[in-house]
Write a structure and sequence with these properties.
Two copies of one chain form a homodimer. The first copy, chain A, is mostly helical. The first copy, chain A, has a single domain, classed as lambda repressor-like DNA-binding domains (434 Repressor (Amino-terminal Domain), Orthogonal Bundle). Chain A has five helices and two strands; from the N terminus they run βαααααβ. Chain A has a two-stranded antiparallel sheet with strand order 1-2. In chain A, helix 2 packs across helix 3. The N and C termini of chain A lie close together (about 10 Å). The structure holds a DNA duplex.
Chain lengths: ~70, ~70
Amino acid sequence: MGAIRNQIREMRAQREITQQELADRVGVTRQTVIAIEQDKYSPSLETAFKVAMVLGVPLEQCFQYDPRGKR
Amino acid sequence: MGAIRNQIREMRAQREITQQELADRVGVTRQTVIAIEQDKYSPSLETAFKVAMVLGVPLEQCFQYDPRGKR
DNA sequence: CTCCAATGTCAAAAATATTTGACATCAGTG
DNA sequence: CACTGATGTCAAATATTTTTGACATTGGAG
């Protein structure tokens, strides 16, 4: 469901990291990165933590929960 | 798998909330609460956000990621 | 002691996330 | 133009999370 937003794409751009690179560093597939960037579903907490860690920011800086949002 | 810790049980105790109550307010099953409290698996980001919200704290205050932890 | 609420366990089914693989598009480069 | 890297899409298989339901244990209250 889509009540979570994220700034991964933007952050990735700023850092000039490719989807593939991020995926590799996080330890998931490029498909997963794509799905997350496009809010296709909400990732596991562990994956989210890893992404934030690779991007070097606290989790809440790349993922936000808005109860009242579809997308 | 289990690289994530949480203080849900403690926070629940402080607030004198029951597993069932937390589950209801979060919108999941008691089983899910139990599983999370016991680190049986890492919940979805959405569930984690809701739990934090119900407990009235930022996500990172009830869930911590420690890359080097089995549990 | 009896009863009840809260917690825990087990296992199977259902739902959701993640992987794998194949292929399409688009922009830039030689 | 031909080629390549980055992104996107689709679908099926696999893995993980969540639900459902049934039952055990413990501690407190009446």
